[in-house]
Design brief:
Elements: H1 2-10, E1 18-23, E2 35-38, E3 57-58, E4 61-62, E5 69-70, E6 85-89, H2 95-100, E7 114-120, E8 123-129, H3 137-146, H4 155-163, E9 171-178, E10 182-191, E11 198-206, E12 211-214, H5 220-230
Parallel strand pairs: 2-6
Antiparallel strand pairs: 1-7, 3-4, 5-10, 6-12, 7-8, 8-9, 10-11, 11-12
């Protein structure tokens, strides 16, 4: 909850409402927090000398952009397992890559970091918060349990008052996408390599067709709730 209060205090505009937030989790077996499947870039988001051959087996993951996404009923698709966020696009100049460009050099799955995705009525963003005792794992867990109940209801003012005495963590906006650049939000699935499980992601499709896929612990119920909240249905 403390991160939401910090975002409201230091980042949100007066008329801006937070619809949901979810942590950018560390991915087991990957050196990066976000996996890129973009022509001309390697899986870390760096420029690749392999050109179109940048798509392929990468660090235990298959990154074939032509077939990694499953729709209901699809069979025989390539596999995907691990990261909780993924970027796809036709080239390194696509909107998704451009909006994450400033943050991309720090796209590291190491260290003690507190990164959260936010969707508001105005924008989609990746925000990093200073790690303190106040916003450690316990506080983050409380924040996630509160999503959907505390935003916009009568408890918000009380929560803000209760936290007023606590020092809010400093934040840094690592990436932003205006809502005007978002074409659609949908649910897609990636097939895990380690099992037959299909992993749900919320897909943010931008105007040029490039995408940013995010997931809340690969939990279908949570991802579906994120989609509903994106459209103001909860």
């Amino acid at each position: 909850m403390i991160e939401v209060l910090a975002a409201r205090a230091a980042w949100c505009r007066p008329d801006e409402r937070i619809l949901w937030c979810t942590p950018l989790r560390k991915a087991s077996g990957s050196k990066r927090l976000v996996l890129y499947s973009v022509r001309g870039l390697d899986e870390t988001g760096e420029r690749s000398g392999l050109g179109s051959r940048a798509f392929g087996a990468v660090g235990g993951f298959l990154a074939d952009a032509a077939g990694e996404v499953l729709s209901p009923g699809d069979e025989g698709s390539t596999s995907f397992d691990g990261p909780f966020a993924r970027v796809t696009g036709a080239g390194s100049d696509c909107l998704a890559v451009s909006r994450l460009a400033a943050w991309q050099p720090t796209n590291s799955n190491t260290g003690d970091r507190n990164l959260l995705w936010f969707l508001t009525t105005h924008r989609f963003a990746l925000i990093e918060f200073e790690v303190t005792k106040a916003n450690g794992p316990g506080a983050l867990g409380g924040l996630r349990r509160t999503v959907g109940r505390f935003f916009g209801d009568d408890g918000a003012e009380a929560a803000s008052s209760a936290a007023a005495e606590a020092e809010l963590p400093r934040l840094k906006v690592q990436a932003e996408v205006p809502r005007s650049e978002i074409r659609s939000l949908d649910i897609v699935e990636h097939k895990a390599t380690s099992s037959s499980r299909r992993l749900p992601f919320l897909r943010i499709t931008l105007l040029d067709g490039s995408t940013i896929d995010v997931s809340d612990d690969h939990d279908d119920k949570r991802v579906r709730r994120m989609l509903a909240m994106s459209h103001g249905q909860e």
